[in-house]
Structures are given as C-alpha cells and as structure tokens.
Amino acid sequence: MDFRRSVLWVIFTISVIFLYNSWLRYNGQSGLFGEPAAVTAKAPATAGRAGDVPTPALQTPAALPGGATAASVAPGVASAPKATLTSIRTDVLDMKVSSEGGNLVYAKLLKYASHADAQDDLVLLDNSPNNIYMAQSGLVGGDFPNHKTPMTLLPGPTQMGGADTLTVRMQSPVVGGLQLTRSYTFKRGSYVIAVSNEIVNKGTTPATPQLYLQLVRDGNDPSTGTHFYHTFTGPAIYDSKDKFQKFEFKDIGDQTKIIKSDDGWLAMVQHYFVSAWLPHPDKGPREFYLRKLEPNLYATGVMLPLPTLAPGARTVQTDTLYVGPEIESQLQGLAPGFELVKDYGWVTIIAKPLFWVLEQIHAVLRNWGWSIIALTVLLKLLFFPLTAASYRSMARMKAVAPRLNALRERHKNDQAAMNAAMVEMYRKEKINPLGGCLPIVIQIPVFIALYWVLLSSVELRGAPWLGWIHDLSAKDPYYILPAIMTATSFLQVKLNPTPPDPMQARLMWIMPAAFSVMFFFFPAGLVLYWLTNNLISIAQQWFINKKMGVPEFSDPK
Fold first, then answer.
1. Mean pLDDT of all residues in the chain?
2. Distance of alpha carbon 98 from alpha carbon 554, whole angstroms
C-alpha cells in the first residue's frame, strides 16, 4: 500500500539509468536510448587532403565501366600548383573557397563567439590538421570536373561591403568535354548560400553527367557538454518517406550506404549549428550516400541526375547550401522538415510550441533569462490546479502520518490487517494515495520538453541574464545558481511528509544531493529554469500546507 515508496524507487532507478547512459556515451558506447557515443578521436594530419570522388550510383550510359570512380584531377593538370584560397566576407560570414574544386573549406560565423576564445568568432567549416569540415561538389559519370579539379576565380568582388548581395564565381578547365562554372551567391544577414553549377558541353559527343553535393568532416565532437549531458554530432538525411534520420559516425562502415529517394536533403548536425545541402525540390530522383573516407573522416552527400548534354548545350543546376546557427525562424521554409535539425527528440510535439511561446515572451522582455523565468511562471500557473491537488493530497498524508505509523506498529506482524486498516483510514479521511503523484507525473513530459528547448536553443548561446551570468548556455562561473537550487531542493523535501520507512526517508534526502551534483555542471539557463520551478513549487506547497493547517516542516531523521 505504500505507493509513495514505489514511486520514489522508480524515480531513483530512472536517475541511475540516466547516469549510466551518460557514462556509456562518455566512454565511447551508444547510449541506452540510441544516442551516439561521444567521439573524441582526432583527425589525421593529412585528412584535409582526402575526400575521394564518389562513385556514380545512378548509372547512366556515361557512367564509368564497372562503377569505377572518376579521375581525381583532369588529365594534363595533375602537376597543378598548390591550391590557393579566396577570402569571401559578408556581414555574418567570413569564408574561404579553395581553387581545388571550388570547395568551401572555411566558414567563420561573425555573430557567434568561439567556445575556446570568447574574443574570437566561431569557426564552423575548416580544413586544418586537427579540424576537417568542408562543403564539396562536382560531376561524375565520366572524366568530368570534380571537387579535386583546379578551378580559376573569375573577376568580380569577394567582399560584400555595402551591397545586399554578393556573387563569387569559379570556373574549371574543360575536362572530358565539359566545363563547370560555379557561382556562390550570398545575401546580407543570411546564412543561406545559393550555389549554381553551370555545365557546358564543349566537346564533340553527348555527355550525361551527374552532380554530387557532399559534406566531409571528421568525427570529432565539438560540443561543450559535460559527463551529465551530451548532444548529437553527425550526418542527417531527410526525405518525405523516412523523414528525419540521424546517423552515428561509428555506424558508417567501409561500405558506402545508399538511400534512394525522390526528394530530401542532407546535413551535418552539431550542437547549435548545422551545415546542409538542400537540393532544388523539383530535381526528382536522387541517391543519398554515407561514406567513410579515412579513419575518423566521413562524407555524406547526394547524387543528382542531369540531362544529357549535346555538343554546345548547357544546363544550370541551382541548389542551396546552409552554413549557420539552428535558428528555427531561419530554418523553416528553406526545405520541408529542415527545422528538425534542431532536434528535440520524442518531445518535439510539446517542445516546438513551448519554444514559440518563449520567443513571444522574449519579443516583449528582450532578455532570455527573464523570458525563461516568465515561461516557467506561466507553466506553473497553467498546472496549478493539478499541482494544488497533488499538494493537498501530500498535505493530508502528512497530517495523518502519525496515525499511519501507529497502524504500522500495531499490525507490524500482520501485513493483511495493516493494509486493510490503511485502506479504511484513507476512505474515512478521503485520501487518495495516488493523488500526490499522478498530477506531477502528468506534468513531467512538459518540463522535459522545456529542458530540451533550453538545451537546444542557440538563442541562449552568449545571452546574458544579469550580474555574473553572461552566457545562459554556459555553467554558472561562481556556482551561485546551483547552490541556491540545491538549497531549494532540500527545502522541498522538508515540506513533504516524512516517509515512515527509514530507508525511504533517507532516500528522499539523498536524491536532491545526487541531482545537485549534475546541476553544478549544467548550463545556467537550465539551472535558472529549475530554480524558478523549485521556488514557485515551494511557495505553492507552503500555501497549501498553511491553508490546511499542516506543520510546515518534516523531521529529516
């Protein structure tokens, strides 16, 4: 009959499971719930020069015999000089395009500070010995220009300056009869890049090339999570059939994984930021692929069919490349389902409306810290009827605790008689032993969803609250919020009825201590939310206890 004892043990068991889950991922294993392991291996120093040309999967008459890959570089240019980099700058991006393949090999986000150095901006794409992350594209299906072919920068500006748009163009030599001209078009204030590939057949025979778009990166984990929480880093693919799919780096084996589809896009996802190729939606059938290029170096891409080009014919394929933060308002509308890269998991259906409300509050208060507090207050008010019912039930249980102890002592040798006496007392006092727990259980998915909203929202990154809290996405530098939250957690225990079972009573005091350890390493925004929730809960619980005339504090012994 002691339902509360069972509930407490369930909570304790769940806590142990989550801690064990984090320990598994920290030690390089998959989580119990399917999350990827935290990959920490470093990329080889030579990996920046890797990235083989993908094998044509959509076979055409022009495809190479036996599915062989195209040559790495054009005939006659194998001894081309070392690749040069062209700097491109907009108001939000600082980028570099390589003359090797016209690839985007560097992207710095000018509105976001680096994890390592707050005085510097965050580098997302890079091609250095310790960090490989690039956007590449090219042609296959013959000896055509690909992401290894030397390309020439065409005349034109490379700095946005006061203009609203900027277009940078690169051109390949004629390879296999085809010449490729690639244009990158940027808009002011946008992380969306329009990538146009113009292919002209300057040969004497028809050609049927395929266009590939791929992202190449190492398997290093760039997140700033602790042992107690981790976020996903890796490739993702979306299509209308299978929807949003994430893939762990460790599951990408030596054999290329192919996914055939009629639509969709691909991305590389990490905490707060994403890069993605969004093919033109009307392009038709496509084949996504996942490849392991070298140890700790991976590629995810898509093959797109192009029309057969007669001699002198041309075709232009324009697709979208996104390189930037996971801001929902900017992700929505770029491609179906693209906003899902900001992944809330199984609580998405609750989390998305919660974030919308948080955004509306922020539009008024203009401070994310106060917005978190306001949203928490709104949720507590919304659930007050359930919370009040729970506290009233607990208050009644607290009031009859001495009588329950007396019943236990009187019938300690007769379990059946004790249970019958307890049921009779509950009936007379109109107490539902489940009443204290069920209202709380109903609220749990909402507060878990809010947890993921605060953990996943890049808007909180670098956002100050007040005083010493300069970044709600980082831990409290002086541990003031976690210390206060710990105190409020113990105060909540004191307001609850003391369990008659000594082991259960000790467990109620152990749990806040165990959870508090984790919160000392959690982002300040999450701790602020939990602290606000605790303070309001204490006020509500004190009010109910006072109203019912129940003693304010229980004996912790």
1. 82
2. 69
